[in-house]
């Protein structure tokens, strides 16, 4: 295990988020997840309003010197208008090289979660406006956070605070009855579109291959674990 102050900070953030998920949802064994590779750890939860919550970390092993955390929270399909929560953090021992975070809406119109996301992120000093590819524009919110080269100190502090606050708000409010009043709503197709479009991300595929796994194993993981579509 590579030791660095930054890695320890991010490991602590991951553990804190994991504890929050443990407190509010039930752990389950995902049958599509066959085995963890060296340095990889995957946890899955399910809840009354959540059909799948996934937290993944990758520790640097061998030639790989990057630490990674991935989170997705997928809400239940029926009569539930919660957005999808997504968070990805990639870091080397000295600097966070990339962060993407979003509450991705599944229905049109305003939503309290989207208002909270904007409130939490609009004042951050390390975010940079960037042009998103077409596949991303179709599924992410207009306030998506996308940034690189996040410096130690204040910027890292802001990122960790943002990440935990967004996790905490989501799980603290996901069972509020106000989000269960969308009679007749079924977001299965919208969630499948989110998964299909995520799989168009060339950086996703190249970054997983860079971890030293085979094309076949990479495809199995992306298709069946990260962004599995529902029939």
3D architecture notes:
- This protein has 231 residues and is α+β, with helices and mostly antiparallel strands.
- The chain has a single domain, classed as oxygen-dependent coproporphyrinogen oxidase (3-Layer(aba) Sandwich), CATH 3.40.1500.
- The protein contains seven helices and seven strands; from the N terminus they run αββββββααβαααα.
- It has a seven-stranded antiparallel beta sheet with strand order 1-2-3-4-5-6-7, covered by helices on one side.
- The longest helix has 20 residues, at 5-24.
- It starts with a helix and ends in a 5-residue tail after the last helix.
Brief overview, please?
This protein is of the alpha+beta class.
